[in-house]
Design goal:
Elements lengths: L1 H29 L6 H8 L3 H5 L5 H24 L7 H15 L4 E2 L2 E2 H13 L3 H27 L9 H22 L4 H12 L15
Antiparallel strand pairs: 1-2
Helix pairs in contact: 1-2, 1-6, 4-5, 4-7, 5-9, 6-8, 7-8
């Protein structure tokens, strides 16, 4: 009985994954409003009854997809925040974003990764869908809180100036990742090493305009 229950749960999980992935491809291809549940059914090759067993409709599908992605991102950054000190920003961002993209690289639309296009589709939908906006706000807030803890870890370790507001850095890092995903959607795929190297270069800059330190002439 135990084996049968385990197989049954594995089957249910696989079916749910199939539906979410098919819906994600549909939404990335045509947008939320132009996609019908019939489109999703056709994409996944299942009956209406099979799909509605898991999700009540498009709204619930959208929320589940967004919540799943935000949950994985939040978990990765929260884990990093518990390290002492946390990994440097360039390495951390590349690792987390690379993991998120790699986990969904099999989702393709017109020969290009579907995930960046899906992210772009989510943003305008939140302006019309309050439930989705609430999911996104909660996810954004948790990722921002995790990044704030990471920055505080940098400051405790002497890796970052202590006079910088941690939340300002958190917002900036999130903006960099979202902007990079937007670029991929609009202009084509790019490896996460591009973002990593860009952040690394910015982190290495010195302000040559700063006054020299040392003893002052008497």
């Amino acid at each position: 009985m135990g084996t049968m229950a385990r197989v049954s749960q594995e089957h249910l999980d696989a079916r749910r994954r199939q539906i979410l992935d098919g819906a994600a491809v549909c939404f990335a291809r045509n947008g939320f409003h132009a996609t019908s549940m019939q489109d999703v059914l056709k994409e996944v090759g299942l009956s209406a009854g099979a799909v509605y067993r898991y999700f009540s409709g498009k709204e619930e599908l959208i929320g589940a997809i967004v919540g799943e992605v935000l949950g994985s991102v939040r978990g990765a950054f929260e884990e990093a925040s518990r390290q002492s000190p946390p990994p440097p920003p360039d390495e951390l961002v590349a690792t987390v974003l690379g993991t998120v993209l790699a986990a969904r690289e099999y989702l393709v639309v017109d020969g290009r990764p579907a995930f960046p296009r899906l992210v772009i589709q989510v943003w305008p939908e939140t302006l019309r869908n309050e439930d989705l906006a609430a999911v996104l706000r909660e996810g954004y807030g948790s990722v921002r809180a995790a990044w704030t803890k990471i920055v505080e870890g940098y400051q405790r370790a002497g890796m970052m100036r202590p006079d910088v507001e941690p939340d300002h850095v958190a917002r900036t890092m999130i903006a960099a990742v979202l902007g990079f995903i937007a670029q991929q959607s609009l202009f084509g795929p790019a490896p996460v090493e591009v973002l990593r190297d860009g952040l690394r270069a910015l982190m290495s800059m010195r302000d040559e305009r700063a006054p020299a330190t040392g003893s002052q002439p008497g």
